[in-house]
Amino acid sequence: MPAPAHLIIAYAAGASEACHKTLQGLALPHLQRLLARLTMQPAASGAQTSYSTPHERALAQALGLPCADGRIPWAAWHRHSLGLPADAQAWAFVTPCQWQVGADHVSLCDPEALGLDEAASRALLAIVAPWFAQDGIHLHYDQPTRWLARSEWFATLATASLERALLRDLRPWLPDARAARPLHRLHSEMQMLLHTHAFNGARAERAQPPVNAFWVHGAGPLPRPAPDPGAPLPTLSHALRDAALRADWSAWGSAWTTLDAGPVAELLRQAASGQSVRLTLCGECHAIGWHSAPRGLVQRIRSYFKPLRMTDLQAML
User: Fold this and answer.
1) From the CB of residue 13, how many other CB atoms can be counted at a distance below 10 Å?
2) How far apart are CA 58 and CA 72, in angstroms?
3) Residue 204 to residues 101, 119, 167, 195, 315: CA-CA distances in angstroms?
4) Please, are residues 131 and 193 in contact by the beta-carbon 8 Å criterion?
């Protein structure tokens, strides 16, 4: 039997009153019709303080990866999906970024705003790699705003998703100081090293923001045996992400309308044609799934006369 089509939507609802008002005026006809066809599953609960986001946990579960909070091995999975040998070594992502220090908070700016290209990222990697290596952390280039790091430190270290700290006060999301003493020291060393470094001097001349920090996330080893990277994968939609993180609920509502007319409408078409489908909606804390399954008469009547509203979903997510 073919695997069901599975769409995971991140940031499907927010907790603010402004989001609630946007939801009240939001028309999502394809989503309403799709939910009326599907059977709801129990919610996968979390908290706003969880290191891993609900959509990360939902995707990890679908892929067969460990789902312990802050210990989903995304970096090791990324290597595995590229066809690199699966091994027992622990990997993590390291994202070069900018921290802005205020009077009572430290903000993590969007790494994409740095404008790093491959050449600049590789040059920065060459500058900082020896410092990391002194603590047994070996860096490898992957993308302009993301490097791969290998170290035994990452075998059991819980790290917060980049999205948890992005555009927020990052201090609650730093890894435990006792478990990550080398990382905390490296944070201080990198700030001192890069503060007056020629790399940032050249960026200042080009009116580019400085790179003065890094963020470690997605740490851990792959389970053994590792999941098959060639198996059918869920589709994770980040269409609502940027607007939600910036609390731009007007843009978020527009993005929802576009999402409803695109991927959600396609999933509805597949369900209407008799295909088995899955939908997972994720908020700040929880994730709720729906799937194709036979429904009793009471369920069908209830979904017809009392369809689930988006404002109901906000309270559930």
Assistant:
1) 28
2) 11
3) 18, 17, 22, 11, 45
4) yes
Q: Give the Cβ contact number of residue 121 at 10 Å.
A: 20
Count the neighbouring beta carbons within 10 Å of the beta carbon of residue 138: 13
Mean of per-residue pLDDT scores for the chain = 90
The predicted pLDDT at position 300 comes to 52
- In this structure, the strands spanning 235-237 and 5-9 are parallel
Q: Are 268 and 34 in contact (CB under 8 A)?
A: yes
Structure tokens at 246: 């910036």
Radius of gyration from C-alpha coordinates of the chain: 21
Of 223, 219, 108, the C-alpha closest to 159 is: 219
Contacts of 269 (CB under 8 A, 6+ apart): none
The whole-angstrom separation of Cα 133 and Cα 182 is 11
pLDDT band at 4 (very low <50, low <70, confident <90, very high): low
In terms of Cβ atoms closer than 10 Å to its own Cβ (0-12, 13-18, 19+), residue 2 is: exposed
State the Cα–Cα distance between residues 232 and 62, nearest whole angstrom.
10
Is-above-0.85 flag for pTM? Answer: yes
For residues 290 and 240, what is the distance between their CA atoms, to the nearest angstrom? 19
pLDDT tens-digit map of 236-295: 999 999 999 999 999 999 999 999 999 999 999 999 999 999 999 999 999 999 999 755
Helices and strands per DSSP (H, E), number in the chain: 13, 11
- CB 247 within 8 Å of CB 18: yes
